[in-house]
Write a structure and sequence with these properties.
binds nickel (II) ion; 15% strand; 9 helices; alpha/beta
C-alpha cells in the first residue's frame, strides 16, 4: 500500500494542463497513492488514457465519448473502436459518458440520450461498469437508469450533484457515487448531505483533475494528489477516520472496476 492508500477514481491526466509536468507528477502519484483511473472523452483522449495505462502499472483507463464532445462522432463505427479497447486488460470502464444540458452548444437531448444508451449497452456487453456525467440532466438520467438500462448495468455517478431523494433510489439499485472537490466547497451543503448518506460500500473518491479543485486550492489546477483533501473532508462529514475511509473506498474501487487486481 502507498502512503495514503487512496485511489482517484476519475482524473483526466491526458489534459493539456499536464503537458509540462505529466510524467513527473504521475511518478509522485505512484509514491503517494495506490492508483488512479483516467477516463477518456473522445477517441483521441481515450487513446491517450490507454497509452498512460500501458506506461504505468498503477494507472487504469476508461474509454468513451463525453456528452460535450459528441459532435466529434462521425458515424456508428465509433462503437467498434470502443469495443476493441473494452477488451484491453487495463481498460476498466466505459466513460466518461452521460448527459450535459448545461452547455447550449452540446448536441440535442435526443442525440445525447441515444449515444449514452449505445455506450451503456456496449459496456454491459463487455461486462464493464460505466462512469456517468450528469450536468443539469438529473431527471433524464434517472429515467434512463430506471427504465432503459439493461439489468446488471454497473455504474458510478461521478461528481454526484443530484438530490438526496434520487441518491436513495440510485443506492437501492446498487449504483456508486463519486465525490470530489465540490464536496469541500462552502456552498455545497447539498452535496455533503448526500456524502453523509451514501452507504459505505457505494462510496468513491475522485478529483476530476484538472478541474474542480478542492479547498484550499480552489481555482488552481487540480491533481490526483488532492484526493487526500477530499478523503479527509469526507471522513469528517461521515464521522469516521481517514484510514477506515481510505480502506473502504479502495475496496470499492476494486469491486466496481473489477479488472483492477
Ligand atoms: Ni471528468
Amino acid at each position: 500500500m502507498s502512503r495514503t492508500g487512496l485511489w482517484d477514481s476519475h482524473a483526466h491526466l491526458d489534459s493539456d494542463y499536464f503537458t509540462d509536468d505529466r510524467d513527473e507528477l504521475i511518478a509522485k502519484i505512484g509514491e503517494e497513492m495506490d492508483g488512479f483511473i483516467n477516463p477518456g472523452c473522445t477517441e483521441e483522449s481515450s487513446a491517450f488514457a490507454v497509452a498512460l495505462a500501458e506506461k504505468y502499472d498503477f494507472v487504469y483507463a476508461a474509454v468513451g465519448w463525453h456528452p460535450e464532445d459528441l459532435a466529434g462522432i462521425k458515424d456508428e463505427h465509433y462503437l467498434d473502436k470502443l469495443a476493441e479497447w473494452a477488451q484491453h486488460p487495463k481498460v476498466v470502464a466505459i466513460g466518461e459518458i452521460g448527459l450535459d444540458y448545461y452547455w447550449k452548444e452540446n448536441e440535442p437531448k435526443e442525440v445525447q440520450k441515444k449515444r449514452l444508451l449505445e455506450q451503456i449497452n456496449l459496456a454491459v456487453q463487455f461486462g464493464l461498469p460505466v462512469i456517468i456525467h450528469d450536468r443539469e440532466a438529473h431527471g433524464d438520467i434517472f429515467d434512463i437508469f430506471r427504465n432503459e438500462v439493461p439489468k446488471g448495468t454497473r455504474a458510478v455517478f461521478h461528481c454526484y450533484s443530484g438530490s438526496l431523494e434520487m441518491a436513495k433510489e440510485l443506492a437501492k439499485r446498487g449504483y456508486y457515487f463519486g465525490f470530489g472537490g465540490t464536496s469541500t466547497y462552502k456552498n455545497s451543503a447539498k452535496v455533503r448531505e448526500v456524502l453523509a448518506y451514501v452507504p459505505d460500500d457505494l462510496l468513491l473518491f475522485e478529483t476530476d483533475s484538472p478541474y474542480l479543485t478542492p479547498v484550499p486550492y480552489r481555482g488552481k489546477r487540480n491533481c490526483p494528489l488532492y484526493t487526500e483533501l477530499v478523503a479527509k473532508n469526507a471522513a469528517e462529514v461521515r464521522g469516521t477516520d481517514f484510514a477506515s475511509i481510505a480502506a473502504q473506498t479502495t475496496k470499492n474501487v476494486k469491486t466496481l472496476f473489477n479488472k483492477i487486481k
